[in-house]
Amino acid sequence: MTSAPILIVSGTNRPGSNTLKLSNVILGHYQKLNVAAEIYSLCDLPAAIFEPAAYAQKPAAFVAVQQKVLAAPGMHVVTPEYNGSFPGVLKYFIDMLKFPESFDHKPVAFTGGANGMFGALRPVEQLQHIFGYRNAHVYPDRVFIPSAKTKFDEAGLMTDDAINQRLAVQAAGFAVFIGKLRAS
């Protein structure tokens, strides 16, 4: 594929979130496929990015984050559902990235997890609109995980075999999707 890894974006800055646990499960699936991938947790956003001046001049600490996004052959966005949508910090992260090049023709996959019964369907669909607007290539195989907090053991491992298999299939398919887009 490429030497740069797929960037898995853990779409909340909530410490110890189920979203980060889910991101780690997804990372494990890419690793089993020998596909380079890494997680970027929004918990790691530099505090300086929240200063009003960051709109005009990105802080040096955010430049490295921007480079990860630009270099990534694809992005796998993992989102929770907050109040019927995705977290505001995820939108802010998207808004702070360079326009249009950050997502222009970049393959993007989506996985949603929520404690409700729809498994973050709404936030994933909303994110698809945003990434579509930014000319990303949206991978159509989405995974929604209802009752997400009940799907992990104390070590953060996925306990639902059917969902774990769907995540494995999604990761494998997305890796192929990226490869085909890069070849064309």
SSE topology sketch:
Blueprint: E1 6-10, H1 18-32, E2 37-41, H2 60-71, E3 75-80, H3 88-96, E4 107-113, H4 121-133, E5 137-138, E6 143-145, H5 161-183
Parallel strand pairs: 1-2, 1-3, 3-4, 4-5, 4-6
Helix pairs in contact: 1-5
Task: Write a short abstract of this structure.
The chain has helices at 18-32, 60-71, 88-96, 121-133, 161-183, and strands at 6-10, 37-41, 75-80, 107-113, 137-138, 143-145.
What this model shows, in words?
The structure is a single chain. With 184 residues, this protein is α/β, with parallel strands linked by helices. It has one domain: Rossmann fold. Helices cover 39% and strands 15% of the residues. It has 5 helices and 6 strands. It has helices at 18-32, 60-71, 88-96, 121-133, 161-183; strands spanning 6-10, 37-41, 75-80, 107-113, 137-138, 143-145. Strands 1, 2, 3, 4, 5 and 6 form a 6-stranded parallel β-sheet that branches. Helix 1 (18-32) packs across helix 5. The longest helix is centred in the last third of the chain and has 23 residues, at 161-183. It is globular, with a radius of gyration of 15 Å. The chain starts with 5 loop residues before the first strand and ends with a helix. The mean pLDDT is 96.
Strand portion: 15-25%
Low-confidence stretches: none
Q: What's the number of extended β-strand segments?
A: 6
CATH architecture: 3-Layer(aba) Sandwich
Q: Label the structural class.
A: alpha/beta
CATH class bucket: Alpha Beta
Biggest sheet features: 6 strands, parallel
State the helical fraction: 25-40%
Terminus-to-terminus distance: 13 Å
Separate helix tally = 5
> What Rg is obtained from the alpha carbons, in whole angstroms?
15 Å
Shape descriptor reads globular
Total domain count: 1
Task: Tell me the CATH topology.
Answer: Rossmann fold
The helix/strand series, from N terminus to C terminus, equals EHEHEHEHEEH
